[in-house]
Design a protein that fits this description.
The complex is a heterodimer of chains A (about 500) and B (about 150). Chain A has about 500 residues and is mostly helical. Helices cover about 75% and strands about 0% of the residues of chain A. In chain B, helix 4 runs antiparallel to helix 5 (about 95-110) and helix 5 (about 95-110) runs antiparallel to helix 6 (about 115-140). Classes of the chains: A mainly alpha (about 500), B mainly alpha (about 150). Chains A and B meet through helix 8, helix 9, helix 17, helix 18 and helix 19 of A and helix 1, helix 2, helix 4, helix 5 and helix 6 of B.
């Protein structure tokens, strides 16, 4: 009953005309940028984040969330039509989706992805509504020691799930933490690493870092690969799945939804892991498995449901514990902070309208995607043929305007350029920027909680293992990192992240 | 052929360098005591860990990608994109949004198969006009479309 009332409160927010409008804008912009190859959800959100500051908190979050799943959705469109996964979690969709398109079944592949995503989104929204409040209650029991350990777990998870080698990913986390510490020390107001520059005393804006690394850095890298895009010209025939298609997609959608919902909840989980796992399981369940890789509808239905469910439920740790589970959630975290809302266990009780409004609007956004995007696929595909040399100057312009508008400061533009170069160098050296962004967000909070916990424990570091919840979280983190370091799992992981 | 300067080694050295810079910076700050930790301790710890990771990455370099050659840098593309951002920053206050967008778009377009200058300029003007409408008229960004340099 309580959940129902809460959902109704959310509906009140979600169907406000302004919120509906910005939800629509968010999903459309997200799809648009997600469709354009090279820019995934993280880059899309980083580039568009500065423009949401002027909106009301709920509205801006609704729009950001819309951009997120819109971009996810657009990513699967390019995966199916171009064999170009717009973002990592569509990599597996491309395998069978593109084959389906080659066989003249692009329409069915796209509608399967849409139907699966919609179903998964609906289920995940309900799960969020059911479980988030109780998780937040657990979060209320957390003291500084527990928070510190939780963040360790979050960072470890982001390291474990990143591309590339473990020490490299760890190093990226450390760089992120250090960059996050630039500025005045919270407790003593001593300036740190500001190089004597007044502009740096407030710290480095994480949006600028994210825009530089994800937006500019990857853009420069994309410029190196010559354009070789050929959209499928085969006629779509029909968007409507046949009876046989329906029969074959039901079970994979259900399984994908389940896998995605669970994996999304874990720190470090989310869309990417969910999609990979769902595809692997479908392949195992399939009887016979030969159809996979050759255009099996199951190979589209399962990962697309899973990544949408995972995308949705990965909001749970963010909204209830204040722990961003992946780089995209780190961006959402930043968006919340910019709006003056601290994500964490008190969010639900202090800002119920924000919490429930965002959750219900996710479902509304999924409806919009389903209703709007299927008829618009023609428009999106035409966009794909837009030459890149018209597109990228516009992206540079948007990044510049965005960075400048954050604080009306030209200094942020110099930072944008610097982190753009850094992002490009990291890309060249095979260093995944996602852990850096996680470190950037979590680093300062970790330091604060560490110092507070040590003060409360009178300088006894054993506080982190004496308290049961904290000890449990540390054990989980240690387990995660040992498991990944094991040779056999390492091989599987390397295979999974190979494109 | 194995070049000693493979991406792993460069990455490792880069990590050590960044770590060392932050470690040096943290030495000026107080480390405090276990009970009352100073502003320097945490960054010092993280910077040391970063140096350690950098060393691991560098020393295991050979084992990892022996086949990979030195990464090539396309410096001209980087230069144009960064120059575009910098020029935007130099122009935006004095010149206004329209000229800033125009310059930014025009310069960055040289990073790829260049459009003909006329086309590129027209595109820049169009984009500048669109951005001025959207951001200044639409989202009321506090900025002039044409700035004081042009006597406004």
């Amino acid at each position: 009953m309580e959940t129902l009332n809460a959902l109704l409160l959310g509906f009140d927010q979600a169907i406000l005309p302004t919120n509906l409008f910005w939800c629509l804008i968010g999903t459309l912009l997200g799809t648009l940028v997600g469709v354009l190859p090279g820019l995934g959800p993280a880059a899309t959100m980083a580039i568009l984040l500065p423009f949401t500051i002027g909106l009301e908190p709920v509205t801006s979050l609704i729009m950001m969330a819309g951009i997120y799943y819109g971009a996810q959705y657009g990513g699967s469109t390019t995966a199916i039509l171009l064999n170009l996964p717009g973002e990592a979690s569509s990599v597996v969709t491309a395998i069978d989706g593109y084959k389906m398109a080659r066989n003249g079944r692009a329409g069915v592949a796209l509608s399967t992805a849409a139907i699966g995503s919609f179903f998964a989104g609906t289920v995940a929204t309900l799960l969020l509504a059911l479980f988030a409040p109780s998780l937040a209650e657990i979060g209320l029991l957390f003291g500084p020691a527990e928070y510190f350990s939780l963040m360790i777990l979050g960072l470890v998870a982001s390291v474990v799930l990143s591309r590339g080698s473990l020490p490299k990913a760890l190093a990226m986390v450390f760089i992120g933490i250090l960059v996050g510490l630039v500025g005045q020390d919270v407790q003593t107001a001593v300036p740190r690493f500001t190089l004597g520059l007044e502009e740096m005393s407030g710290g480095i804006n994480f949006v600028v870092v994210a825009m530089g690394l994800f937006g500019i850095g990857e853009l420069i890298k994309d410029l190196e690969t010559p354009e070789s895009r050929t959209a499928i010209n085969a006629p779509f025939f029909s968007m409507i799945p046949s009876r046989e298609d329906w029969r074959r997609m039901v079970a994979p959608i259900l399984r994908g939804t389940g896998i995605g919902s669970v994996l999304g909840l874990l720190p470090g989980g989310g869309a990417l892991l969910a999609a990979f796992a769902a595809y692997a399981i479908e392949k195992r369940v399939a009887n016979p498995p030969e159809g996979f890789g050759g255009g099996a509808i199951e190979g589209v239905a399962a990962p697309e449901s899973a990544n949408n469910a995972g995308a949705q439920t990965s909001f749970v740790p963010l909204l209830t514990l204040g722990l961003p589970a992946n780089a995209v959630m780190a961006l959402m975290f930043g968006a919340l902070i910019m709006q003056g809302i601290a994500p964490g266990p008190t969010l639900i009780s202090e800002h119920p309208d924000v919490f429930w409004g965002v959750i219900v609007s996710m479902w509304v956004g999924n409806v919009m995607l389903l209703v709007l995007n299927l008829p618009l696929i023609g428009v999106w595909t035409r966009l794909l043929t837009m030459p890149f040399h018209y597109l990228f100057p516009a992206i540079v312009v948007f990044c510049s305007i965005g960075a400048f508008s954050l604080g009306n400061s030209v200094f942020d533009l110099w930072l944008l350029g610097a982190f753009g170069v850094a992002g490009y160098i990291f890309a060249k050296l095979d260093c995944d920027p996602a852990p850096l962004v996680m470190g950037l967000i979590l680093g300062p909070m970790m330091e604060e909680n560490f110092r507070r916990a040590m003060f409360l424990a009178r300088g006894n570091p054993s506080v982190f293992v004496d308290r049961p919840i904290s000890a449990g979280l540390i054990v989980l983190a240690v387990l995660a990192i040992t498991v990944v370091a094991l040779p056999k799992i390492k091989a599987v992981r390397e295979e999974a992240f190979q494109e | 052929m194995t070049s000693r300067l493979n991406p792993q080694l460069i990455a490792g050295l880069l990590f050590v360098l960044i770590g060392a810079a932050f470690l040096l910076g943290s030495l000026d700050l107080s480390y405090g005591t276990w009970r009352k930790i100073g502003p320097g301790a945490f960054p010092g710890l993280v910077a040391s860990a970063l140096i350690a990771m950098g060393l691991i990455v560098a020393f295991t370099a050979e084992k990892h990608d022996t086949g990979k050659e030195r990464p090539s840098l396309y410096s001209s593309k980087v230069t144009f994109i960064i120059a575009a951002i910098v020029v935007f920053g130099l122009v935006v206050r004095g010149g206004g949004l329209l000229p800033a967008v125009f310059c930014c778009c025009f310069i960055s377009s040289f990073a790829s198969r260049p459009l003909q200058p006329v086309k590129s300029a027209l595109y820049g003007l169009g984009l500048g006009a669109a951005c001025s409408l959207a951001f200044i008229k639409g989202l009321s960004m506090p900025l002039a479309i044409i700035g004081p340099w042009f006597g406004y």
